[in-house]
């Protein structure tokens, strides 16, 4: 049987890295892309087929996909849109540029890559588009407005796409992880320091706590390993692919709370989340 090919974005660390290796071990042909060339080199040394793909750069997206398609003879079984980052900071402290940058990576780059993959999948009559969303793709939390907005947008776009792809043979799945062990917090900390003025803001005191939390190496409650996401990913690659996979206890809990509670009551609970 022909090996199924999967292109993954954001494989330098965390979920993307874990899933690339695990899928390869499970017999898939994995194209593990990464933003930085030094990560591509490292991934190749580790035995992965790796190419450079920066979601902020249209040329890089096209070049990576062209190369992958050359390797596969023009087919691609699945795309795992995983690469993204979190920009912390209160909504009123986000500049237009910072918000734009969050959307460039988490939404526009992902959308552009998906749109280039879809004609390939339509032509072959099958395919899997799998989006790494988040609990923050359907639940809003304080000081996470930029990331919330980008993942809510990803959910909206994916739900629409799923409707539009009905009967095409292509499925669209959203994986919604809660806290997962990875470099996510470390990368969010760097974006917080680089892009948010922590002094001239009504949130000065809160930001001190936020900074300490992002710097802490301790897991937040209910954190799981990357394998939890991998189990969802593997299922989304099968014929039984579901529209949504809720990963971790907080995701499942808040999914139900959002359906059961009024906005006022839900806000009461969410205001307690740091
Ligand atoms: N960890 C969690 O708690 C959690 C929870 C819910 C959802 N998620 C989602 O899971 C996915 C993976 O995150 P993670 O937890 O594994 O965090 P991570 O370790 O920080 O990995 C994020 C990956 O995205 C890449 N990336 C960032 N900007 C990119 C760009 N412009 N082009 C291409 N790749 C880019 C990073 O590359 P660089 O190393 O080059 O920056 C890295 O490979 C993300 O979509 C995230 O939103 C994570």
Keywords:
274 residues, Rossmann fold, seven-stranded parallel β-sheet, 51% helix, globular, binds NADP nicotinamide-adenine-dinucleotide phosphate
List strands and helices in order, with pairings.
Elements: E1 5-8, H1 14-25, E2 29-34, H2 37-45, E3 49-52, H3 58-72, E4 78-81, H4 96-124, E5 127-132, H5 145-164, E6 170-177, H6 184-195, H7 204-215, H8 227-236, E7 244-247, H9 249-260, H10 263-270
Helix pairs in contact: 1-8, 3-4, 4-5
Bound molecules: NADP nicotinamide-adenine-dinucleotide phosphate.
NADP nicotinamide-adenine-dinucleotide phosphate binds at residues 9-16, 34-36, 53-56, 82-85, 105, 132, 134, 177, 179-180, 182-184, 187.
Question: What would you say about this model in short?
Answer:
The chain is of the alpha/beta class and 274 residues long.
Task: Summarize the amount of helix as a percent range.
Answer: 40-55%
Principal-axis shape equals globular
Total helix count?
10
- In percent, how much strand structure appears in the residues? 5-15%
Report the biggest beta sheet as strand number plus sense, adding barrel if it closes: 7 strands, parallel
The third-level CATH topology is Rossmann fold
How many domain regions? 1
- Class based on secondary structure composition and strand pairing: alpha/beta
Number of strands: 7
Radius of gyration: 19 Å
Spatial separation of the terminal alpha carbons: 50 Å
Q: Assembly state here?
A: single chain
């Amino acid at each position: 049987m022909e090996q199924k090919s999967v292109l993954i974005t954001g494989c330098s660390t965390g979920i993307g890295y874990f899933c690339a290796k695990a899928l390869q071990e499970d017999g898939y042909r994995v194209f593990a892309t990464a933003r930085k060339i030094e990560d591509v080199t490292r991934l190749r040394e580790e035995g992965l087929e790796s190419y450079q793909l920066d979601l902020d750069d249209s040329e890089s997206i096209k070049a990576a996909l062209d190369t992958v398609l050359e390797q596969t003879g023009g087919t691609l079984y699945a795309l795992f849109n995983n690469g993204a980052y979190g920009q912390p900071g209160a909504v009123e402290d986000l500049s237009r540029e910072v918000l734009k940058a969050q959307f460039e990576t988490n939404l526009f780059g992902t959308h552009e890559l998906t749109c280039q993959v879809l004609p390939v999948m339509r032509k072959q009559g099958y395919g899997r588009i799998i989006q790494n969303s988040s609990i923050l793709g359907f639940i809003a939390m304080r000081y996470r407005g930029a990331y919330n907005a980008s993942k809510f947008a990803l959910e909206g776009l994916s739900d629409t796409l799923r409707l539009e792809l009905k009967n095409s043979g292509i499925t669209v799945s959203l994986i919604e992880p809660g806290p997962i062990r990875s470099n996510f917090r470390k990368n969010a900390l760097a974006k917080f320091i680089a892009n948010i003025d922590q002094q001239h803001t009504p949130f000065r005191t809160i930001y001190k706590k936020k900074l300490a939390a992002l710097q802490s190496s301790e897991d937040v409650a209910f954190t799981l390993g990357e394998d939890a996401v991998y189990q969802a990913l593997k299922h989304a690659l099968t014929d039984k692919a579901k529209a949504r996979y809720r990963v971790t206890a907080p995701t499942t809990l808040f999914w139900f709370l959002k359906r059961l509670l009024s906005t006022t009551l839900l806000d009461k609970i969410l205001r307690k989340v740091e």
